[in-house]
Amino acid sequence: MEKKNNTKVILAESLRSLMQKMSFQSITIKKICDEAGVVRVTFYNYFVDKYDALDYLVQSDLADGIQVHSADPVRVLIEHLASMMMNHRRFYEVAVDIEGQNGFREIFIVQMKEALQKILQVHRKRNPEHADLSDAYLAETYAVMVFYFARTWLRTSGSTEQNFIRNALKMIHSSFYDFIDA
After folding, report:
1. How many C-beta atoms lie closer than 10 Å to residue 167's C-beta?
2. φ and ψ at 35, to 5 degrees?
3. Is the domain of 92 the same as that of 111?
4. pLDDT for 122-165, tens place per residue?
């Protein structure tokens, strides 16, 4: 099982590596496999297409930032996201422009929504004023906001990780914290 998971990671990281050198549109499954040192059929044992591999990368990148039992899980998630985007900035700069049905926006929002729902499940304040707002609705709303904030930050040259964290938390803090105990 370990070897199988390693191959999946190697394939996904090969996509990340290629995206730092060329546009997503010009990346083929063959190029990913050549970069990973595997035959083409191996790719399809793990992923449906390159969008599926992109989804896996985003999910993997966010997974370590989901620490629902920390004192401030939203800060931990945003700091982790900022760190991942700084460490793989070129990858995210290319990824943020992938559009369409399986575009990066959709992938990011789904993964961020899942992360925020996990936080809400543990920390949601039960305020009668907000009873009509479901966890799913809140998580998706804030996931969309974080996506647009991240996209703007990635497109602004010279932006630092600290700028992203400070500004994202300001935006979220003024509203998201109304719904959680943290």
Report:
1. 15
2. -65, -35
3. yes
4. 988 887 887 898 999 999 999 998 998 889 888 887 777 777 77
Same domain assignment for residues 12 and 65: no
How many domains is the chain built from? 2
Query: What is the 8-class DSSP label of residue 21?
Result: T
- d(Cα 104, Cα 97) in Å, to the nearest integer? 7
* In a shared domain, residues 88 and 136: yes
Distance from C-alpha of 118 to C-alpha of 64, rounded to nearest angstrom: 13
> At residue 73, what is the residue type?
P
Are 155 and 96 in contact by the 8 Å Cβ rule? The answer is yes
* Paired strand residues for 124: 180
How far apart are the C-alpha atoms of 135 and 108, rounded to whole Å?
A: 18
User: Which tens digit of pLDDT belongs to each residue from 66-112?
Assistant: 888 888 898 888 888 888 988 899 999 999 999 988 899 999 999 99
Same domain for 108 and 41, yes or no, is: no
Q: Identify the CA nearest to 136 among candidates 122, 107, 116, 106.
A: 116
Domain that holds residue 162: 50-178
- The answer to whether 93 and 112 are in contact (CB under 8 A) is no
pTM for this predicted structure: 0.84
Whether 102 and 126 share a structural domain: yes
